[in-house]
Amino acid sequence: MNKLIVAALPAILSVPTSAQTTLVSTGSVWRYLDDGSDLGTTWRAPSFDDSSWAAGPAQLGYGDGDEATVVSYGPDPSFKHITTYFRHNFQVADASQFEALTFKLLRDAAAVVYLNGHEVYRSNIVGPIDYLTLAVVTVSPLQENVYYDRTIDATHLVMGTNTLAVEIHQRSRASLDISLDLRLDGHTEPIAARGPFLQDAQPTSVRVRWRGVPASDGRVRYGTSPANLTSSMLDPTVAEDHEVLLPGLTPETRYYYAVGSSAMDLAGGDSEHFFETPPTVGSSTPLRFWVLGDSGTANRDARDVRDAYESFTGATYTNAIVLLGDNAYERSGEEELQTAVFDMYGDALRQSPAYPTRGNHEAVAAVYFDAYTMPAGGVPSGTEAYYSFDYGNVHFLCLDSQGSDRAVDGPMWLWARDDLTATDQPWIVAFWHHPPYSKGNHDSDTEASLVQMRENFLPLLEDHAVDLVLGGHSHSYERSFLVDGHYGDSTTLTNNMRVDDGDGRPDGDGAYNKAAGPRAGAVYITAGSSGKITNAAFGHPIMVHSRALLGSVVLDVDGGRMDVKFLDAQGLVDDSFTMLGEDYVGVYCVASVNSYGCTADVTTLGTPSVSSPSAFTLTASNLPPKSFAFLVYSTAPENTPGLFGRVCVDRPLRRRLATFTQGPAPCGGRAEIDFNETIQAGFDPGLVVGTTIYSQFWYRDRLPQGAAVSEAYQFTIQP
User: Fold this and answer.
1) Residue 677: which H helix or E strand, with range?
2) Is residue 235 exposed (0-12), middle (13-18) or buried (19+ Cβ within 10 Å)?
3) Are strands 54-57 and 205-223 parallel, antiparallel or unpaired?
4) Neighbours of 287 (CB within 10 A)
5) Closest CA to 391 of 559, 556, 278
6) What is the full DSSP assignment across 297-326?
7) d(CA 519, CA 80)
8) What is the pLDDT of residue 508?
9) What pLDDT does residue 638 have?
10) Which of these, 677, 676, 687, lies nearest to 652 by C-alpha position?
11) Nearest-angstrom CA–CA distance, 306 and 567
12) N-term to C-term CA, the chain
C-alpha cells in the first residue's frame, strides 16, 4: 500500500473545467483492407501507404445489418478472414494542449488500437498477436453495440497528422459478424478517468480510490460540508491509480470530499461527492443495501435497472452496494470493467461503498482483484477472493464460487466456519455468484458449481444461523420461502424442510419469524437479472416467486426487522417479504384474533422455572395442518392481543418459534414449545422469578390466507 501522509492544506482549489475536443467522431471515414492477408507490423506506422485501400464511414463490418460500410469476409462464409485492418488520419493543431485522451470503442469481436504506431488499447484479445490470433470470447448480441472506454495520457499525440490503426479479430472462422466504430476525445486538463469510488467502509475510516490521467501524486480533501474540506490525506506516489485511507472518522457522519493531486482537484468538492460512515458494529441504525446481479451488460437494460433504483431510493442513503458477480461482460477486461461498472454506476459508487463477488465472467482475475479493495473484517481470510464485513447489525459473508476450492474442509470452508463462529451479529447475509437453488437458465440440480455450493456450504451456513443468501448467474429472479436442511436436488424437498412455506408478506401469509440460533431457516434469492434476462421454465419447488424480469434487490434492515424487495426496471416492486428476528420490537399484526376454521386449544405441562431441569411445555393443538406457529409473550397484560381483541400490537412483545407437528385435516396441527428453555437461555433479562408472563400462540390459518391467535395464557415464573 502506498504511504499516506497528512498534508498541510494549500489554498482551496476548484475542480478544473476540462475542455474536451472530439478528435475523431463516430461515423468517421476509415480506410480498410479486408482480404485476410498478413500485414505484419508495418501497416501501423503513420508513413504506411494505404492509398490503395477501400474507404467508407463507420460503423464498418458485416453480419449485423446496421453497418454503414460492409466489408468482405472472403469467399467462404464458413472460413472467414480472421483479421481486418483499418486506418484513419486526423489533424491536431497543437498537441501540447492535451493532457489525456479517451477512446470509446465499439468492437466485435476483438480489437487492437495503435496511435502513431504505438499500441494504446487492446480489447478481448491477448498477445503476442498476429493475423491469425483469435478473440478470447464471443461477443453476445447484448454487447455488440456497447462502446468501451479507455483513457490514456496524450504522450503519443503529435502536432499535425495523427494516424489511428485498428485491427479487428474474429472469434472463429465461422463467426457471423464483425464491427468497428471509434470516437477519440482530447482533454486539455488532467481528468479523473475512473471514480472516485469508495471501498471498505468502517465506522471510523473509508478508502477512496480513483484513476487520474496523466499520472500524479494523489490527494483527498474531506470535511463535513462541501465548502469546508478541512482535512487532507496525500499519497505521494506518482501514478494513475490511487487508493487513500481516510482514518479517524466519526461513525454515522456524512463527509464530503474531493480527489486529485497536490496541485489540483480532479473531482468532487461539491454536494454530490459524499459518503456516510457506517454505524458502530451491532448498532440498530436503519440501513439500506442495493444488490445487483449479472449487471455487467453496459447497455440500456442495465441503465433502466439503475435508473429505477435511483428513482425508488430518492433521498434515502444507500449504505452499501453488493455486486453478485458478472459485473462486466464478456470477460471483464479492463475496458469492460470501466464501462460496465465505473461508468455505469459512477454516481452511486462515489457515494456508497461496493462489495463484489467474482462471477464466471470475471475471467481476467488480475483485473478483478486490482479493481477493488476487499475488507478484512470479521476473521481475516488472507485473500480478496472471499471475505466478510460488518455493517451495523448485519454480518456479510462473501464466498467465491468461481475460483476457490469449494470442498468441505477446504481453505474457504474452514475460514467461513471460523468467521461464522466468531460473529454474534443478529443478522447474517451470505452472497456469492453461483446460486444453490435455480431453475432459470442455470440448473442447480445438475451444474457442478451450484451443486457443490449447496451441498458443501449450506449445512455450514444453516448451522450458524444464516438469514439470507444471495446469488446471481441465472438471469432471472427466484426467491424461496423460509427453508432449512435441503441439500439435495429439487426432487428431495420435503415438508419438514419448510420452516415457513408462506409468502413472507405482512399483508399476505405473514412475515417470516426467525427464531434465535441455528437451523431456524433462511431465504435464498437468485437475482441475476440486473443486466439481462433469460426465459426459463422455472418450477423449483423451493421457490415462492420466479420471474424472468429485469431488476435489482433492495435490502432494508431496521433493528430486528429485515425487508427485502425485488424492484423491476420500471420501478415497481414485483416481490417482497419481511423477516423478523426475535429481538424485533416494532408492531406485530395478525389477520384476525380468532381462527377462521380451527379453534386452538392451549395446554401446559410442568412448571415455569429459572432452575428446573424439567420442561415447561406450552402446547397449542387443534391447529390447521401445514401451518406455522410461534409463541408471543409479554410481561404487560395489555399487550396480549387476543385477550383484548387487538389485531396489531406494539412492543414489548417477544416471540419464540414453536415446533410444529403436522396432523390430519382440518384441525390436526400441533405447536409446542418448552418455555423453560426460553427462561433459562438468558437472552431475555425480564424472565426472572416472580414475573408474570402473558402468552399466546400465533399461527397461520390458510383458509382465509391470514394469521390467527389462540386464547391467551398466563403463568408466573417460579424459582
Assistant:
1) helix 675-681
2) buried
3) unpaired
4) 23
5) 278
6) T-SHHHHHHHHHHHHHHTTS---EEEE-S-
7) 58
8) 78
9) 75
10) 687
11) 10
12) 60
Report the half-sphere exposure of 237 (CA within 13 A, side-chain side): 11
Tell me how far the alpha carbon of residue 503 is from its chain's centroid.
23
Q: Which of 424, 380, 464, 428 is nearest to 282 (CA)?
A: 424
Contact 162, 91 (CB under 8 A): yes
Task: Read off the DSSP letter of residue 490.
Answer: G
- The CA distances from residue 629 to 136, 444, 619, 708, in Å, are 55, 31, 11, 9
Q: Full-prediction pTM beyond 0.85?
A: yes
Residue 696: per-residue pLDDT: 87
Reduced to 3 states (helix: H, G, I; strand: E, B; else coil), residue 181 is: strand
**CA 287 – CA 133 distance, rounded (Å):** 50
Strand order from edge to edge, sheet including 669-674: 601-605, 617-623, 669-674, 659-661
CA distance 617 to 677: 10
What is the 8-class DSSP label of residue 690?
T
Instruction: Enter the C-alpha cell of residue 80.
Output: 472467414
Name the DSSP class of 439.
Answer: B
List all residues 6 or more positions away from 657 whose beta carbon is below 8 Å from its beta carbon.
513, 514, 515, 520, 630, 673
Give the pLDDT confidence score for residue 39 in this predicted structure. 97
- Pairing between strand 573-580 and 588-589? unpaired
Q: Give pLDDT, residue 3.
A: 32
User: pLDDT > 70: what percent of the chain?
Assistant: 94
**Residue 269, CB half-sphere, CA atoms under 13 Å: how many?**
17
3-class state of residue 540 by DSSP = coil
Neighbours of 174 (CB within 10 A): 11
Vertex 447, ends 442 and 448: CA angle to 5°?
145
Q: Are residues 455 and 346 in contact, defined by beta-carbon separation less than 8 angstroms? A: no
Is the distance from CB of 627 to CB of 563 less than 8 angstroms?
Answer: no
- Going by C-alpha positions, the residue among 214, 252, 255 that lies closest to residue 233 is 255
CA distance 299 to 550: 12
Determine which helix (DSSP H) or strand (DSSP E) holds 348, and give its type and residue range. Answer: helix 346-349
Reading the block at residue 653, the C-alpha cell is 412483545
CA of residue 202 relative to chain centroid, distance: 18
Q: How many C-beta neighbours within 10 Å does residue 258 have?
A: 27
Segments of the chain scoring below 50 in pLDDT: 1-16
Query: 3-state SS of 142-175?
Result: HHCCCCEEEEEECCCCCCEEEEEEEEEECCCCCC
User: What's the pLDDT score for residue 645?
Assistant: 64
pLDDT tens string 87-97: 999 999 999 99
CA distances 214 to 79, 123, 130, 219, 659, Å, are 43, 21, 30, 14, 65
Ramachandran quadrant class, 503 (left: phi over 0; alpha: psi -120 to 50; beta: rest): alpha
